[in-house]
Write a structure and sequence with these properties.
Layout: H1 3-17, E1 27-32, H2 37-50, E2 55-59, H3 63-71, E3 77-80, H4 86-96, E4 101-109, E5 111-114, E6 122-124, H5 125-132, E7 150-154, H6 159-167, E8 179-181, H7 184-193, E9 197-201, E10 210-211, E11 213-215, H8 227-231, E12 238-245, H9 252-261, H10 264-273
Parallel strand pairs: 1-2, 1-3, 6-11, 7-8, 7-9
Antiparallel strand pairs: 3-12, 4-12, 5-9, 5-10
Helix pairs in contact: 2-10, 3-4
């Protein structure tokens, strides 16, 4: 072997011996809740502007999709509009040996949307349960016009779908006639164009439609989803929005990002998007 080859071989050996930076260094992926996509994209945009060396990729698909990606270790962060299920925790433990860490990152008043032309202003939870399960089929039954109700819902991978089914429908199935929409934005667009339509979604997606006041019982006051009523747990369909992460990677840039989005600066963006900031007492939990 001549001197040139010896030098090249030695240099290659030194190159291989030195740990090379990962192709994903400074890169964070966030996947899951469609409800959270506009918020997660805003967080990512602002944070990348502050820290140019960090790349954050955000995709939706539903909370269930985010949890599946977390289990498969194909995402760093799972965005979720519902709490993780015990079966999903078990899959995470099977995959990476630990329960994922849960972070509350915002609050939402899950809103009931109708067309701006609809004369209805409020409904109670029992009426909502009957409308969305198909027991009430005409607006006249709840004080509206004599017209059939068109129910719009989300796909079953959606955390919002699961939350609504559990907390409003009490576990019952949606009406067979319900039209399933691929995302909250699509659902709101459909409701806004359908004077007989009704649907549900995160508080930040109301453009073009009208949200109703909601009563916990027929005798209760009708409550509008506002920061005060949601943070104070007065609005009947409030919830947290979450991020879940594998504890093994909850460090470095990933941890810094999660801490930032729960900070005053990150929570200010929550409000700008249309959701509600975490109370100070929850920021460090």
């Amino acid at each position: 072997m001549n001197l040139k080859n010896i030098i090249q071989t030695t240099a290659l050996g030194l190159l291989l011996a030195v740990p090379m930076p990962s192709a994903l260094a400074g890169s964070i992926t966030a996947k899951g809740s469609d409800t959270m996509v506009i918020l997660a994209q805003k967080w990512a945009e602002v944070y990348m502007g502050k820290t140019p060396g960090t790349k954050i990729q955000v995709t939706g698909g539903g909370s269930g999709t985010g949890f599946a990606a977390l289990q498969n270790r194909t995402t760093d962060l799972a965005n979720a509009s519902r709490k993780i299920k015990s079966a999903e925790i078990a899959e995470c433990i099977k995959s990476f040996g630990k329960r994922p860490t849960e972070y509350k990152v915002a609050l939402d008043g899950l809103s009931i949307y109708v067309s701006a032309e609809n004369t209805i202003q409020e409904l109670d939870l029992e009426q909502l349960e009957k409308i969305f399960t198909g027991k009430i089929k005409n607006w006249k039954a709840v004080g509206g016009p004599d017209a059939p109700i068109t129910v719009y819902s989300r796909e079953n991978s959606s955390g919002t779908y699961e939350f609504f089914k559990e907390h409003v429908l009490k576990g019952a199935d949606f009406a067979a006639s319900a039209q399933t929409m691929p995302g909250t934005a699509a659902l709101l667009q459909a409701v806004a164009k359908d004077k007989n339509g009704i649907g549900y979604g995160g508080a930040a997606y109301g453009a073009g439609a009208k949200h109703l006041k909601v009563k916990a019982t027929p005798e209760s006051p009708a409550i509008e989803p506002t920061e005060e009523t949601v943070v104070g747990a007065k609005y009947p369909i409030w919830r947290y929005l979450y991020i879940y992460v594998n504890p093994a990677i909850d460090k470095g840039e990933t941890a810094a990002y999660i801490n930032w989005l729960r900070s005053d600066e990150g929570q200010k963006l929550v409000k700008e998007i249309g959701y509600y900031p975490l109370p100070e007492t929850l920021r460090n939990k």
